[in-house]
Amino acid sequence: MSTASRNYKRKQIRPVWCSGCGNYGVLRAVEKALEELQVAPQQTAVISGIGCSGRFSHYLNVYALHGTHGRALPIATGVKTARPDLTVLVVGGDGDSLGIGGGHLPHAARKNVDLTFLILDNNTYGLTKGQSSPTTPWGCLTKTAPYGSPEDALEVLPILLAYDASFVARASSVQIEQMARIITEAIRHPGFAVLHILTPCVTYPVLAWRQLRERLRPLPEDHRPGDRAAALQLACSRDPLYTGIFYRVEKPTLDERLQQLHQSALRRYSSNGKTPSIPSIMERYL
Hints:
Elements lengths: L2 H6 L14 H15 L6 E5 L14 E4 L5 H11 L4 E7 H5 L6 H7 L4 E6 L2 E2 L5 E2 L23 H7 L4 E6 L3 H13 L4 E6 L10 H7 E3 L9 H8 L5 E8 L5 H16 L8 H6 L3
Parallel strand pairs: 1-2, 1-3, 3-4, 4-8, 7-8, 9-10
Antiparallel strand pairs: 5-6, 7-10
Helix pairs in contact: 2-7, 6-9
């Protein structure tokens, strides 16, 4: 094992996910991506929400914050805005990211915050004993829907493409090597990169391993990630479920836009070639 790999592992806290949980594969893929990029642990922050995926931030030897339900994205936005030099990863489950936290997605996308958001989707609330989640299929039997879920499942990738997130991809913990490569590309991407990861729960197998393997296919080789309309068409496919990078476009990040505004404000309030101070600017509003 490499020195980098040992540095990313937090020896004091071991994962407590169920044996066979797909989240172990996601954790390994993240470690492999960080190894590939040689990101220093002290230059990395992982922000997570609640649920099984919320424990993710405990298991890496980096700066970490285990936030409240659905609030990982705004916390990470604050971290990245205050410390643009950090590599920031956000981890949330399907409930945390698309249920109570779903209202934060369009705003992180339109701001184009330079962070990587991993949505770990198992189609159920696993930690709280198998209730229906936003991605539970219609008709599926759960603890809160003993006669079948009466609701349609959210279509994650079409939603992200509609929000114009600047990097949209799908992977699965069934295919760790591919997932690690996509996470690496997501971290490299300058902007809001979202990776939808299908990761089965072995205790409440709404999303079952065998059926998932049978449905997965790589994106067509001729797909162009800059074509959002084509990406949307492929994202709407349910069988097969395509994996890979659906959409990628570069545009100014939130930090770049804030720096432009900062420089514009300095030019506006400077006088005689002198850089204004905050008190001198505030005096104009008294």
